[in-house]
Design brief:
Layout lengths: L1 H6 L3 H14 L4 H13 L3 H14 L4 H13 L3 H11 L7 H12 L3 H27 L3
Helix pairs in contact: 2-3, 3-4, 3-5, 4-5, 5-6, 5-7, 6-7, 7-8
Length: 141
């Protein structure tokens, strides 16, 4: 039930259901990820980090969780860790946001050339995403 509410964007109800699910099964990875994702979306990054680390211990290749962890570290001004996690998640970037956040963290570290490359990649990904959306919209039903 929590997953359905999470997918619908009803994070308050989702969080309640997910907490209950974790009481019944503390190792429920999907519930852990979804609670962490809600925490990041609500800028409760300090709450999200241990959940994401726990999730990634079991699912180290989960790029969405890596992106969320990188975003949480960025918000917490832990820029080195943000770069590490966002760099790992960059291959999953479909809208340019991961590269944008990576550029932001790199800039904060004074790594300007790398930040510029990440920003260019973000723009290219965003432009490609917009072009795909235009093509879908132009296609007859």
């Amino acid at each position: 039930m929590g997953t359905v509410q999470w997918e619908l964007g009803d994070f308050g109800k989702a969080q309640e259901a997910l907490v209950k699910a974790l009481r019944l099964n503390p190792g429920a990875l999907q519930a852990i990820f979804e609670l962490a994702n809600i925490a990041v979306r609500e800028h409760r990054d300090a709450d999200a980090v241990p959940l994401l680390e726990q999730f990634l211990d079991a699912q180290p290749d989960a790029l969405a969780a890596r992106a969320d962890l990188g975003r949480a570290y960025l918000h917490l001004e832990r820029y080195e860790k943000a770069v590490e996690e966002l760099g790992k998640a960059a291959t999953a970037d479909q809208q340019g946001d991961i590269h944008y956040q990576l550029a932001t963290a790199l800039k904060k570290l004074g790594r300007d050339q790398e930040a510029q490359r990440a920003m260019r990649a973000s723009r290219q990904i965003r432009e490609a995403d917009l072009e795909r959306a235009r093509k879908r919209k132009a296609q007859p039903n």
